[in-house]
Amino acid sequence: MKSLLLSLFLFLVVFPSAVQAQKSYKITYLSSDHGKTDRDQDPIVLLVNDEMVKGTSIKKLAGKADYPYQEFYINWKTEPAEYIRTAHFSADKSLETIDTNFLGRYEYKLTDETKKILGYTCYKAVTIVNSNNIELWYTKDLPYKASPVGMGQELGVVLEYVRNGNTAITASEIKKVKLDISMPQMEVVDALSYNDALWKSSFIQIPVFENEQINFVDNPKTTDDGVLRFASGTVILKKVKIPELKPGTQGFVQAIQKSLGDAYDRTASIFLIRKSDKETFLHGMQKGMDSIETYENGNGTLYKGMVASEIFEPSIELMRFFTPFGVDHFNDRVKLKGKEWLHEVIYRQDISEFVDALSGQEVYIGGFIGNWDKGGHDLSLELTFHPGWETKVPKTQILPLFNTTSVMEMGGQGYPTMFDTEKGLKVNFELKEAAKNVQLRYITTGHGGWSGGDEFNQKPNSIYLDGKQISSFIPWRTDCGSYRLYNPVSGNFENGLSSSDLSRSNWCPATITPPEYIDLGDLPAGKHIIEVNIPQGASEGNSFSYWNVSGVLLYNSLH
């Protein structure tokens, strides 16, 4: 009997981990928002013993988690302790990053306030993180230290985390379990690389153009990256495959631009050409603008490839932006005290209304910057698609109606001066079935760069549907001076103003012109007419005014 007791004593001393497995805990947490708990959530799980903490979830423990997903570990065995985050991108790719400075990162105000959570007495600690008020309710009744979030690990066992009094993570169950917590082996990277890889894994990123030169040359250069060039190099085009996108996905287009020699503010447009049963704008780009559908307003001019018809679908303008005066290339030419010129402009715009039309499609994405300069501009472009939280959303249909932005300006398209007659712009279209929640996505900017030109004079844009006026507004920007640091060679006047400061007809150098969404209500199946009227200013000598307008119908099918 004495020999048995001695053997048991030696086993407990030499092999404490066998007993440690008996002392482990599994703590399950549920998230809530304003007191409401989502029944479909994947609960957070902490596996805790005196040497290690593992943060995971029910689905991850069951091997049913969707990629990408994260877990974390607190390794109390090392000196200093380690906070280890792991990211799993696929069955074959995982990364981890290790933080040894996580303890003491936050300052906590410890209070005497207590409450019971699952029968354990918990104390409140308070801290502020990025202007958010954080409450951590921790207990010392359990022999370990752990928290379901990165903070509070040193306090005790945190059983509730509350942010700004309304978002909470609360322990719902505590069980003793038999387990060993082990760390998987994977590639270790620095925190910045880890965060970047994790961020990029959460959405779809489609590069379209990378540092492509848009300039005016006799023979545009050809490249091996699938980029086509038109209109003496001022237009670039690329075929892009869009994957299947889940309902509720949000889409964005982002362009980055800088000057490679052109010093002037220029109209720029990112446009889409999709497959269609009708002739598309691509035909005119490839065969010449004289081969494409034209529109007449009665003034004798033929407007090429701008207006939809029974046999033609115009390009779809995703984003219109305006280059500044010489950003980057001319930064060293002009020195002004107190001004540090920026080196590029980033233009980013939500295009979620086109997600349903793009999903699973092969389309052409184009980029245009109007210029007559051999250096021209540098343009990079990407599309990103981000899974949304709403999955039960009606599918958005689109119907392109007009796009008068003359992206083939240097290829013989001509300028959109059709608003010089009473007819203006009139488009006939037909809905094959009744449409619900119809909107006109309308982008408009006025041009004519002298004092009497429409660039600098307020002009109402009036929209008519089936002969009835539905909208009239004056598109005007008064915030252009906010973007002065993008405009190193903007002209300066005797009165102290710079050209880039001046208010304009809905655009500023270095900015996007966002769409107007004009509500048309529900429309019956059949034929309809959209009209756009603008009191376009008269020409003066060789100077003339014109309006770049684009319009796409957005609607939900009733069936």
TrEMBL record:
InterPro entries: Cu2_ascorb_mOase-like_C, GLPGLI, PHM/PNGase_F_dom_sf, PngaseF_C, PngaseF_N, PngaseF_N_sf. Gene3D superfamilies: 2.60.120.230, Peptide-N-glycosidase F, N-terminal domain. This is GLPGLI family protein. Residues 205-385 form the Peptide-N-glycosidase F N-terminal domain. The keyword Disulfide bond applies. Keywords: Disulfide bond, Signal. Residues 1-21 form the signal peptide.
